[in-house]
Amino acid sequence: MDKVLARDTEGPAARPRRRAALISAVAGVAMVAAAVMVTSPSASAGTTLGASAAEKGRYFGTAVAAFKLSDSQYTGILNREFNSVTAENEMKWDATEPSQGQFNYSSADRIVNHARSNGMQVRGHALAWHSQQPGWAQNLSGTALRQAMLNHVTQVATYYRGKIYAWDVVNEAYADSGGGRRDSNLQRTGNDWIEAAFRAARAADPGAKLCYNDYNTDNWTWAKTQGVYNMVKDFKARGVPIDCVGFQSHFNSGSPYPSNYRTTLQSFADLGVDVQITELDIEGSGSTQATTYGNVVRDCLAVARCTGITVWGIRDSDSWRASGTPLLFDSSGNKKQAYTATLDALNAGGTTTPPTTTPPPPPTTTPPPSTTTPPPSGSGCTATLTLNQWQGGFVTNVRVTAGAAGANGWTVSLTLPSGASVTNTWSAQASGTSGAVSFRNVDYNRQLGAGASTEFGFQGNGTGPSGTATCTAG
Ligand code: G2I
Questions:
Q1: Which of 55, 133, 232, 397 has its Cβ near the most Cβ atoms within 10 Å?
Q2: Each residue of 400-437: pLDDT tens digit?
Q3: Distance (Å, rounded) from C-alpha 417 to C-alpha 435?
Q4: Is 81 a catalytic residue?
Protein backbone atom coordinates (compact mmCIF):
# COMPACT_ATOMS: atom_id res chain seq x y z
CA MET A 1 0.00 0.00 0.00
CA ASP A 2 2.85 2.40 0.79
CA LYS A 3 4.14 2.16 -2.73
CA VAL A 4 0.71 3.00 -4.05
CA LEU A 5 0.32 5.91 -1.64
CA ALA A 6 3.59 7.37 -2.80
CA ARG A 7 2.26 7.66 -6.32
CA ASP A 8 -0.02 10.62 -5.77
CA THR A 9 2.43 13.24 -6.93
CA GLU A 10 0.26 15.13 -9.40
CA GLY A 11 -0.99 18.59 -8.48
CA PRO A 12 -4.57 19.02 -7.32
CA ALA A 13 -5.58 20.66 -10.57
CA ALA A 14 -4.90 17.43 -12.43
CA ARG A 15 -6.98 15.42 -10.04
CA PRO A 16 -10.56 16.34 -10.99
CA ARG A 17 -9.98 15.30 -14.61
CA ARG A 18 -8.36 12.12 -13.46
CA ARG A 19 -11.18 11.46 -11.00
CA ALA A 20 -13.80 11.94 -13.71
CA ALA A 21 -11.97 9.57 -16.01
CA LEU A 22 -11.64 7.04 -13.23
CA ILE A 23 -15.31 7.21 -12.33
CA SER A 24 -16.35 6.28 -15.84
CA ALA A 25 -13.51 3.85 -16.40
CA VAL A 26 -13.63 1.77 -13.28
CA ALA A 27 -16.94 2.35 -11.50
CA GLY A 28 -18.25 -0.93 -10.21
CA VAL A 29 -15.04 -2.82 -10.96
CA ALA A 30 -13.61 -4.94 -8.18
CA MET A 31 -10.35 -4.46 -6.30
CA VAL A 32 -8.44 -6.72 -8.69
CA ALA A 33 -9.05 -4.27 -11.47
CA ALA A 34 -8.14 -1.36 -9.21
CA ALA A 35 -4.83 -3.03 -8.48
CA VAL A 36 -4.18 -3.23 -12.21
CA MET A 37 -5.00 0.45 -12.58
CA VAL A 38 -2.24 1.54 -10.19
CA THR A 39 0.40 0.02 -12.44
CA SER A 40 -0.45 2.65 -15.03
CA PRO A 41 1.50 5.87 -14.53
CA SER A 42 -1.59 7.99 -15.26
CA ALA A 43 -3.82 6.32 -12.67
CA SER A 44 -3.74 6.22 -8.89
CA ALA A 45 -6.76 4.10 -8.00
CA GLY A 46 -7.34 3.90 -4.32
CA THR A 47 -4.39 5.98 -3.16
CA THR A 48 -6.43 8.71 -1.49
CA LEU A 49 -9.82 8.84 0.18
CA GLY A 50 -11.32 11.13 -2.45
CA ALA A 51 -9.98 9.19 -5.44
CA SER A 52 -11.07 5.88 -4.01
CA ALA A 53 -14.56 7.13 -3.15
CA ALA A 54 -14.86 8.61 -6.64
CA GLU A 55 -14.19 5.20 -8.14
CA LYS A 56 -17.30 4.04 -6.31
CA GLY A 57 -19.32 7.03 -7.54
CA ARG A 58 -19.12 8.71 -4.13
CA TYR A 59 -17.34 11.66 -2.56
CA PHE A 60 -15.19 11.74 0.55
CA GLY A 61 -15.26 15.09 2.31
CA THR A 62 -14.24 16.92 5.43
CA ALA A 63 -15.35 19.89 7.47
CA VAL A 64 -13.06 22.85 6.91
CA ALA A 65 -12.41 25.94 9.02
CA ALA A 66 -11.54 29.00 6.94
CA PHE A 67 -8.91 30.26 9.36
CA LYS A 68 -6.94 27.03 8.97
CA LEU A 69 -6.50 27.42 5.21
CA SER A 70 -3.22 29.25 5.86
CA ASP A 71 -1.85 26.16 7.68
CA SER A 72 0.11 24.36 4.98
CA GLN A 73 0.01 20.98 6.71
CA TYR A 74 -3.76 21.24 6.97
CA THR A 75 -4.22 22.40 3.39
CA GLY A 76 -1.78 19.80 2.12
CA ILE A 77 -3.84 16.96 3.58
CA LEU A 78 -7.09 18.61 2.48
CA ASN A 79 -5.99 18.96 -1.13
CA ARG A 80 -4.47 15.50 -1.31
CA GLU A 81 -7.22 13.45 0.31
CA PHE A 82 -10.63 15.06 -0.02
CA ASN A 83 -12.97 15.89 -2.90
CA SER A 84 -15.75 17.54 -0.90
CA VAL A 85 -15.82 20.16 1.84
CA THR A 86 -18.31 21.44 4.37
CA ALA A 87 -17.81 24.79 6.10
CA GLU A 88 -17.55 23.90 9.78
CA ASN A 89 -19.07 27.21 10.98
CA GLU A 90 -18.78 29.79 8.21
CA MET A 91 -22.14 29.29 6.48
CA LYS A 92 -24.20 29.27 9.66
CA TRP A 93 -26.75 31.99 10.33
CA ASP A 94 -24.60 33.89 12.87
CA ALA A 95 -21.71 33.98 10.39
CA THR A 96 -23.60 34.91 7.23
CA GLU A 97 -26.19 37.37 8.59
CA PRO A 98 -24.68 38.94 11.72
CA SER A 99 -27.10 41.88 11.48
CA GLN A 100 -30.55 41.46 10.02
CA GLY A 101 -30.48 41.96 6.27
CA GLN A 102 -26.69 42.44 6.20
CA PHE A 103 -24.94 39.45 4.76
CA ASN A 104 -21.28 38.59 5.15
CA TYR A 105 -19.89 35.78 3.03
CA SER A 106 -16.18 36.50 3.38
CA SER A 107 -15.17 33.44 5.41
CA ALA A 108 -17.57 31.12 3.61
CA ASP A 109 -16.28 32.38 0.27
CA ARG A 110 -12.71 31.50 1.24
CA ILE A 111 -13.79 27.91 1.68
CA VAL A 112 -15.95 27.80 -1.44
CA ASN A 113 -13.21 29.37 -3.57
CA HIS A 114 -10.60 26.98 -2.19
CA ALA A 115 -12.86 24.03 -2.93
CA ARG A 116 -13.75 25.12 -6.44
CA SER A 117 -10.21 25.93 -7.44
CA ASN A 118 -9.11 22.49 -6.23
CA GLY A 119 -11.92 20.54 -7.88
CA MET A 120 -13.84 19.76 -4.69
CA GLN A 121 -17.59 19.96 -4.30
CA VAL A 122 -19.22 21.87 -1.48
CA ARG A 123 -21.87 20.79 1.02
CA GLY A 124 -23.68 23.83 2.39
CA HIS A 125 -24.17 23.81 6.17
CA ALA A 126 -26.62 24.97 7.50
CA LEU A 127 -29.47 27.28 6.47
CA ALA A 128 -31.98 26.95 9.33
CA TRP A 129 -31.01 25.76 12.81
CA HIS A 130 -32.01 26.57 16.37
CA SER A 131 -28.33 26.92 17.33
CA GLN A 132 -25.71 29.47 16.23
CA GLN A 133 -28.38 32.01 15.43
CA PRO A 134 -27.29 35.65 15.50
CA GLY A 135 -28.50 37.53 18.57
CA TRP A 136 -31.09 39.50 16.63
CA ALA A 137 -32.75 36.29 15.42
CA GLN A 138 -32.70 34.76 18.89
CA ASN A 139 -34.77 37.75 19.98
CA LEU A 140 -37.43 37.30 17.28
CA SER A 141 -40.51 35.13 17.37
CA GLY A 142 -43.66 34.38 15.41
CA THR A 143 -44.14 35.82 11.95
CA ALA A 144 -41.14 38.13 12.22
CA LEU A 145 -38.85 35.16 12.91
CA ARG A 146 -40.50 33.00 10.27
CA GLN A 147 -39.99 35.67 7.64
CA ALA A 148 -36.46 36.39 8.78
CA MET A 149 -35.65 32.68 8.52
CA LEU A 150 -37.18 32.36 5.05
CA ASN A 151 -35.39 35.46 3.90
CA HIS A 152 -32.13 34.04 5.24
CA VAL A 153 -32.65 30.74 3.44
CA THR A 154 -33.54 32.57 0.24
CA GLN A 155 -30.64 35.02 0.32
CA VAL A 156 -27.91 32.55 1.21
CA ALA A 157 -29.08 29.83 -1.18
CA THR A 158 -29.44 32.42 -3.94
CA TYR A 159 -25.96 33.83 -3.30
CA TYR A 160 -24.42 30.35 -3.65
CA ARG A 161 -26.76 29.14 -6.41
CA GLY A 162 -24.95 26.71 -8.70
CA LYS A 163 -22.00 26.22 -6.34
CA ILE A 164 -23.48 23.90 -3.71
CA TYR A 165 -23.86 20.16 -4.25
CA ALA A 166 -26.17 19.71 -1.27
CA TRP A 167 -27.56 22.04 1.39
CA ASP A 168 -28.34 21.12 4.97
CA VAL A 169 -31.54 23.16 4.75
CA VAL A 170 -32.67 22.29 8.25
CA ASN A 171 -30.38 21.02 10.98
CA GLU A 172 -31.22 19.17 14.20
CA ALA A 173 -34.94 19.89 14.45
CA TYR A 174 -35.84 16.72 16.36
CA ALA A 175 -35.76 16.23 20.12
CA ASP A 176 -33.23 13.83 21.60
CA SER A 177 -35.92 11.55 22.95
CA GLY A 178 -39.55 10.82 22.29
CA GLY A 179 -39.51 11.06 18.52
CA GLY A 180 -41.01 14.54 18.27
CA ARG A 181 -39.76 17.96 17.32
CA ARG A 182 -37.27 19.85 19.45
CA ASP A 183 -38.70 22.95 21.08
CA SER A 184 -37.06 26.06 19.63
CA ASN A 185 -37.95 29.57 18.54
CA LEU A 186 -38.25 28.24 14.97
CA GLN A 187 -40.52 25.37 16.01
CA ARG A 188 -42.74 27.83 17.83
CA THR A 189 -43.40 29.65 14.54
CA GLY A 190 -45.45 26.61 13.48
CA ASN A 191 -44.82 22.96 12.72
CA ASP A 192 -44.58 23.69 8.99
CA TRP A 193 -41.39 25.75 9.40
CA ILE A 194 -39.27 22.90 8.05
CA GLU A 195 -41.19 22.47 4.83
CA ALA A 196 -41.37 26.24 4.38
CA ALA A 197 -37.57 26.33 4.57
CA PHE A 198 -37.24 23.52 2.02
CA ARG A 199 -39.60 25.25 -0.43
CA ALA A 200 -37.71 28.51 -0.12
CA ALA A 201 -34.38 26.71 -0.68
CA ARG A 202 -35.71 24.90 -3.76
CA ALA A 203 -36.92 28.16 -5.26
CA ALA A 204 -33.58 29.84 -4.60
CA ASP A 205 -31.29 27.06 -5.86
CA PRO A 206 -33.16 24.42 -7.86
CA GLY A 207 -29.91 22.61 -8.71
CA ALA A 208 -28.81 21.85 -5.14
CA LYS A 209 -29.82 18.69 -3.34
CA LEU A 210 -31.78 19.65 -0.26
CA CYS A 211 -31.05 17.68 2.92
CA TYR A 212 -32.43 17.34 6.42
CA ASN A 213 -29.44 16.79 8.76
CA ASP A 214 -29.41 15.47 12.33
CA TYR A 215 -27.49 13.47 14.98
CA ASN A 216 -28.50 10.39 16.97
CA THR A 217 -30.54 9.20 14.02
CA ASP A 218 -28.18 6.31 13.26
CA ASN A 219 -29.84 3.59 15.32
CA TRP A 220 -32.93 2.31 13.55
CA THR A 221 -34.68 1.46 16.81
CA TRP A 222 -34.37 4.92 18.36
CA ALA A 223 -37.48 7.08 18.55
CA LYS A 224 -35.62 10.07 17.11
CA THR A 225 -34.66 8.07 14.02
CA GLN A 226 -38.27 7.04 13.55
CA GLY A 227 -39.48 10.60 14.02
CA VAL A 228 -37.22 11.89 11.26
CA TYR A 229 -38.10 8.91 9.08
CA ASN A 230 -41.81 9.69 9.40
CA MET A 231 -41.22 13.33 8.53
CA VAL A 232 -39.29 12.42 5.38
CA LYS A 233 -41.94 9.90 4.40
CA ASP A 234 -44.63 12.55 4.85
CA PHE A 235 -42.61 15.12 2.86
CA LYS A 236 -42.16 12.68 -0.02
CA ALA A 237 -45.89 11.85 0.03
CA ARG A 238 -46.90 15.52 -0.06
CA GLY A 239 -44.30 16.72 -2.56
CA VAL A 240 -42.24 18.83 -0.16
CA PRO A 241 -38.90 19.24 -1.98
CA ILE A 242 -36.47 17.07 -0.02
CA ASP A 243 -33.68 15.14 -1.77
CA CYS A 244 -31.45 13.78 0.97
CA VAL A 245 -31.00 13.02 4.63
CA GLY A 246 -27.73 13.68 6.41
CA PHE A 247 -26.61 11.42 9.25
CA GLN A 248 -24.08 13.32 11.33
CA SER A 249 -22.79 10.13 12.92
CA HIS A 250 -20.79 11.51 15.84
CA PHE A 251 -20.00 8.20 17.52
CA ASN A 252 -18.70 7.69 21.05
CA SER A 253 -19.53 5.51 24.04
CA GLY A 254 -22.73 7.43 24.73
CA SER A 255 -23.85 7.21 21.12
CA PRO A 256 -22.07 4.19 19.68
CA TYR A 257 -22.01 2.96 16.11
CA PRO A 258 -25.10 0.74 15.90
CA SER A 259 -25.06 -2.67 14.24
CA ASN A 260 -28.27 -1.70 12.41
CA TYR A 261 -26.70 1.41 10.84
CA ARG A 262 -26.92 -0.08 7.35
CA THR A 263 -30.61 -0.82 7.92
CA THR A 264 -31.15 2.82 8.86
CA LEU A 265 -29.38 4.13 5.76
CA GLN A 266 -31.21 1.70 3.48
CA SER A 267 -34.60 2.39 5.05
CA PHE A 268 -34.30 6.12 4.45
CA ALA A 269 -32.97 5.54 0.93
CA ASP A 270 -36.03 3.40 0.24
CA LEU A 271 -38.16 6.50 0.79
CA GLY A 272 -36.62 7.92 -2.39
CA VAL A 273 -33.95 10.20 -0.94
CA ASP A 274 -30.17 10.10 -1.06
CA VAL A 275 -28.44 9.50 2.25
CA GLN A 276 -25.13 11.05 3.23
CA ILE A 277 -22.87 10.63 6.25
CA THR A 278 -22.27 14.26 7.01
CA GLU A 279 -20.18 14.78 10.17
CA LEU A 280 -18.50 11.47 10.88
CA ASP A 281 -16.16 11.16 13.83
CA ILE A 282 -15.56 8.13 16.03
CA GLU A 283 -13.97 8.57 19.43
CA GLY A 284 -11.33 6.00 20.37
CA SER A 285 -8.02 4.77 19.04
CA GLY A 286 -6.16 1.91 17.44
CA SER A 287 -7.80 -1.09 15.90
CA THR A 288 -11.16 -0.61 17.65
CA GLN A 289 -11.58 2.81 16.13
CA ALA A 290 -10.23 1.59 12.79
CA THR A 291 -12.72 -1.28 12.63
CA THR A 292 -15.64 1.06 13.26
CA TYR A 293 -14.50 3.44 10.52
CA GLY A 294 -14.29 0.45 8.17
CA ASN A 295 -17.79 -0.65 9.16
CA VAL A 296 -19.24 2.79 8.46
CA VAL A 297 -17.62 2.88 5.02
CA ARG A 298 -18.83 -0.63 4.18
CA ASP A 299 -22.36 0.32 5.23
CA CYS A 300 -22.38 3.37 2.99
CA LEU A 301 -21.02 1.44 0.03
CA ALA A 302 -23.69 -1.23 0.56
CA VAL A 303 -26.47 1.34 0.10
CA ALA A 304 -26.76 2.49 -3.49
CA ARG A 305 -28.11 5.91 -2.53
CA CYS A 306 -25.43 6.59 0.09
CA THR A 307 -23.67 9.19 -2.03
CA GLY A 308 -20.79 10.22 0.19
CA ILE A 309 -19.08 10.52 3.55
CA THR A 310 -17.81 13.65 5.28
CA VAL A 311 -15.57 13.49 8.36
CA TRP A 312 -15.89 16.37 10.82
CA GLY A 313 -12.34 17.67 10.58
CA ILE A 314 -8.93 16.54 9.36
CA ARG A 315 -6.53 16.04 12.29
CA ASP A 316 -7.54 15.03 15.82
CA SER A 317 -6.50 18.50 16.94
CA ASP A 318 -9.01 20.03 14.51
CA SER A 319 -11.93 18.19 16.09
CA TRP A 320 -14.66 19.73 18.24
CA ARG A 321 -14.01 16.64 20.39
CA ALA A 322 -10.21 16.74 20.17
CA SER A 323 -9.69 14.87 23.43
CA GLY A 324 -11.55 11.88 21.97
CA THR A 325 -9.07 11.66 19.05
CA PRO A 326 -11.97 10.86 16.70
CA LEU A 327 -10.50 11.60 13.25
CA LEU A 328 -8.35 9.97 10.56
CA PHE A 329 -5.11 11.93 11.03
CA ASP A 330 -3.24 12.49 14.28
CA SER A 331 -2.43 15.95 15.54
CA SER A 332 0.83 15.95 13.56
CA GLY A 333 -0.98 15.13 10.34
CA ASN A 334 0.05 11.46 10.19
CA LYS A 335 -2.35 8.84 8.90
CA LYS A 336 -3.86 6.75 11.71
CA GLN A 337 -4.96 3.12 11.62
CA ALA A 338 -8.44 4.53 11.15
CA TYR A 339 -7.26 6.14 7.89
CA THR A 340 -5.91 2.87 6.51
CA ALA A 341 -9.08 1.00 7.47
CA THR A 342 -11.18 3.67 5.78
CA LEU A 343 -9.14 3.61 2.58
CA ASP A 344 -9.05 -0.19 2.51
CA ALA A 345 -12.82 -0.36 2.96
CA LEU A 346 -13.31 2.15 0.14
CA ASN A 347 -11.03 0.17 -2.15
CA ALA A 348 -12.63 -3.15 -1.27
CA GLY A 349 -16.19 -1.95 -1.74
CA GLY A 350 -16.55 -2.78 -5.40
CA THR A 351 -19.30 -5.32 -5.13
CA THR A 352 -22.24 -2.98 -4.50
CA THR A 353 -24.23 -0.96 -6.96
CA PRO A 354 -22.93 2.58 -7.20
CA PRO A 355 -25.58 5.30 -7.02
CA THR A 356 -27.02 6.71 -10.19
CA THR A 357 -25.14 9.91 -10.76
CA THR A 358 -27.91 12.05 -12.16
CA PRO A 359 -26.64 15.53 -12.87
CA PRO A 360 -28.59 18.16 -10.94
CA PRO A 361 -31.20 20.01 -12.98
CA PRO A 362 -30.06 23.24 -14.62
CA PRO A 363 -30.63 26.18 -12.30
CA THR A 364 -33.27 28.03 -14.24
CA THR A 365 -35.20 25.82 -16.64
CA THR A 366 -36.74 22.51 -15.68
CA PRO A 367 -39.31 20.48 -17.57
CA PRO A 368 -42.86 21.10 -16.40
CA PRO A 369 -44.17 18.53 -13.91
CA SER A 370 -46.79 16.17 -15.27
CA THR A 371 -49.36 17.49 -12.82
CA THR A 372 -49.51 20.99 -14.27
CA THR A 373 -51.69 22.03 -17.14
CA PRO A 374 -50.02 21.62 -20.53
CA PRO A 375 -48.38 24.75 -21.93
CA PRO A 376 -50.45 26.90 -24.26
CA SER A 377 -50.22 25.72 -27.84
CA GLY A 378 -49.14 29.02 -29.31
CA SER A 379 -47.33 31.98 -27.85
CA GLY A 380 -47.77 33.03 -24.25
CA CYS A 381 -47.12 31.31 -20.96
CA THR A 382 -48.88 29.92 -17.94
CA ALA A 383 -48.26 30.51 -14.24
CA THR A 384 -49.12 27.97 -11.54
CA LEU A 385 -48.97 28.97 -7.90
CA THR A 386 -48.11 26.79 -4.90
CA LEU A 387 -49.02 28.38 -1.59
CA ASN A 388 -47.41 27.64 1.74
CA GLN A 389 -49.60 29.46 4.28
CA TRP A 390 -49.12 29.84 8.01
CA GLN A 391 -50.71 32.01 10.66
CA GLY A 392 -50.09 35.57 9.49
CA GLY A 393 -47.77 34.88 6.56
CA PHE A 394 -47.10 32.90 3.42
CA VAL A 395 -44.66 31.86 0.72
CA THR A 396 -45.94 31.43 -2.83
CA ASN A 397 -43.84 29.59 -5.39
CA VAL A 398 -44.76 30.26 -9.00
CA ARG A 399 -43.94 28.00 -11.93
CA VAL A 400 -43.88 29.85 -15.23
CA THR A 401 -44.15 27.64 -18.31
CA ALA A 402 -43.62 28.95 -21.82
CA GLY A 403 -45.87 28.00 -24.70
CA ALA A 404 -44.83 26.38 -27.97
CA ALA A 405 -43.16 29.59 -29.15
CA GLY A 406 -40.99 29.89 -26.04
CA ALA A 407 -40.65 33.21 -24.23
CA ASN A 408 -38.20 36.06 -24.37
CA GLY A 409 -39.25 37.68 -21.11
CA TRP A 410 -42.42 37.14 -19.09
CA THR A 411 -44.66 38.87 -16.58
CA VAL A 412 -46.99 37.25 -14.06
CA SER A 413 -49.88 39.38 -12.77
CA LEU A 414 -52.28 38.62 -9.95
CA THR A 415 -54.38 40.28 -7.30
CA LEU A 416 -53.47 39.61 -3.69
CA PRO A 417 -56.26 38.88 -1.20
CA SER A 418 -57.31 41.88 0.83
CA GLY A 419 -54.85 42.67 3.63
CA ALA A 420 -51.98 40.70 2.08
CA SER A 421 -48.67 42.32 1.21
CA VAL A 422 -45.47 41.13 -0.43
CA THR A 423 -42.33 41.56 1.68
CA ASN A 424 -39.72 39.67 -0.32
CA THR A 425 -39.35 38.25 -3.82
CA TRP A 426 -36.72 35.95 -5.34
CA SER A 427 -35.88 35.14 -8.95
CA ALA A 428 -38.22 37.87 -10.23
CA GLN A 429 -38.67 41.65 -10.04
CA ALA A 430 -41.86 42.66 -8.22
CA SER A 431 -44.04 45.70 -8.93
CA GLY A 432 -46.45 46.63 -6.18
CA THR A 433 -46.79 45.09 -2.75
CA SER A 434 -50.57 44.83 -2.29
CA GLY A 435 -53.69 44.57 -4.40
CA ALA A 436 -52.76 44.13 -8.07
CA VAL A 437 -49.09 43.11 -8.25
CA SER A 438 -46.89 41.81 -11.03
CA PHE A 439 -43.61 39.94 -11.27
CA ARG A 440 -41.21 40.38 -14.17
CA ASN A 441 -38.40 37.97 -15.11
CA VAL A 442 -34.85 38.78 -14.12
CA ASP A 443 -31.93 38.39 -16.52
CA TYR A 444 -31.04 34.77 -15.93
CA ASN A 445 -34.58 33.41 -16.38
CA ARG A 446 -35.73 35.70 -19.22
CA GLN A 447 -35.35 33.11 -21.98
CA LEU A 448 -37.53 30.03 -21.88
CA GLY A 449 -37.51 27.45 -24.66
CA ALA A 450 -40.74 25.95 -25.97
CA GLY A 451 -42.55 24.30 -23.07
CA ALA A 452 -39.73 25.05 -20.64
CA SER A 453 -40.37 26.41 -17.18
CA THR A 454 -38.76 28.34 -14.40
CA GLU A 455 -39.72 29.13 -10.83
CA PHE A 456 -39.77 32.26 -8.75
CA GLY A 457 -41.30 32.99 -5.39
CA PHE A 458 -42.39 35.63 -2.98
CA GLN A 459 -43.31 35.82 0.65
CA GLY A 460 -45.57 38.15 2.52
CA ASN A 461 -47.89 38.97 5.37
CA GLY A 462 -51.52 37.97 5.54
CA THR A 463 -53.19 35.44 3.28
CA GLY A 464 -51.33 34.50 0.13
CA PRO A 465 -52.61 33.77 -3.38
CA SER A 466 -52.96 30.30 -4.86
CA GLY A 467 -54.25 28.71 -8.05
CA THR A 468 -53.18 30.27 -11.32
CA ALA A 469 -52.22 33.78 -12.38
CA THR A 470 -52.11 35.69 -15.65
CA CYS A 471 -48.87 35.14 -17.54
CA THR A 472 -47.78 37.32 -20.45
CA ALA A 473 -44.80 36.44 -22.62
CA GLY A 474 -42.54 39.03 -24.19
O1 G2I B 1 -21.20 20.23 17.54
C2 G2I B 1 -20.71 19.45 16.51
C3 G2I B 1 -21.52 19.64 15.26
C4 G2I B 1 -22.93 19.07 15.46
N5 G2I B 1 -23.69 19.17 14.25
C6 G2I B 1 -23.78 20.48 13.65
C7 G2I B 1 -22.40 21.10 13.47
O8 G2I B 1 -22.51 22.40 12.98
C9 G2I B 1 -21.63 21.08 14.78
O10 G2I B 1 -20.36 21.70 14.52
C11 G2I B 1 -19.80 22.39 15.58
C12 G2I B 1 -18.45 22.93 15.17
O13 G2I B 1 -17.60 21.85 14.90
C14 G2I B 1 -17.86 23.76 16.31
O15 G2I B 1 -16.68 24.42 15.86
O16 G2I B 1 -20.66 23.44 15.94
C17 G2I B 1 -20.19 24.12 17.11
C18 G2I B 1 -21.22 25.13 17.55
O19 G2I B 1 -22.47 24.58 17.69
C20 G2I B 1 -18.87 24.79 16.80
O21 G2I B 1 -18.35 25.37 17.95
C22 G2I B 1 -18.24 26.74 17.93
C23 G2I B 1 -17.97 27.20 19.33
O24 G2I B 1 -19.06 26.79 20.17
C25 G2I B 1 -17.86 28.68 19.36
O26 G2I B 1 -17.53 29.10 20.65
C27 G2I B 1 -16.83 29.15 18.35
O28 G2I B 1 -16.83 30.56 18.27
O29 G2I B 1 -17.19 27.16 17.08
C30 G2I B 1 -17.15 28.56 16.97
C31 G2I B 1 -16.15 28.96 15.90
O32 G2I B 1 -14.89 28.42 16.17
A1: 55
A2: 999 999 999 999 999 999 999 998 776 788 999 999 99
A3: 7
A4: no
